[in-house]
Amino acid sequence: MIEPDPDLTATLSSMMPLMAHMGAEAVSADRDLVVLRLGWSPERCTSGGMLHGGALMTLADGAAGWCAFLNLPADAAGTTTIESKTNFLRGVRDGHVDALSAILHRGRTTIVVDTELRDAEERLVARVTQTQAVLMSRP
Prior knowledge:
Elements: H1 6-15, H2 17-22, E1 25-29, E2 34-39, H3 53-70, E3 76-88, E4 96-106, E5 110-119, E6 124-136
Antiparallel strand pairs: 1-2, 2-4, 3-6, 4-5, 5-6
């Protein structure tokens, strides 16, 4: 298992303070694949010790947003989520979850990202497809 990278995690935290607040860590980040990790802990759970779906969706949104950002056209100013679809497939009661985000479509106005959420045993926990708007600089 690849461990989180402290330097990338610091970059993630400065770009998206919510990720730091949640305790997310960065494992890797390049144009082809962004991998973020969130450890299980009781404060991130719903009843019964299950990692909360909102925490999973937030992790996926952070990974997809970073992946889209790394794939922006040169003249773009940024990106923002405009649509997200999540399918939950299994619960997480311990360990951690990795969000693995990769580009499905890279366009001038939108970027579509596919994110797999996998548990510590690499079982598929959820799948998220997300559309990111490409934000252009104002003249």
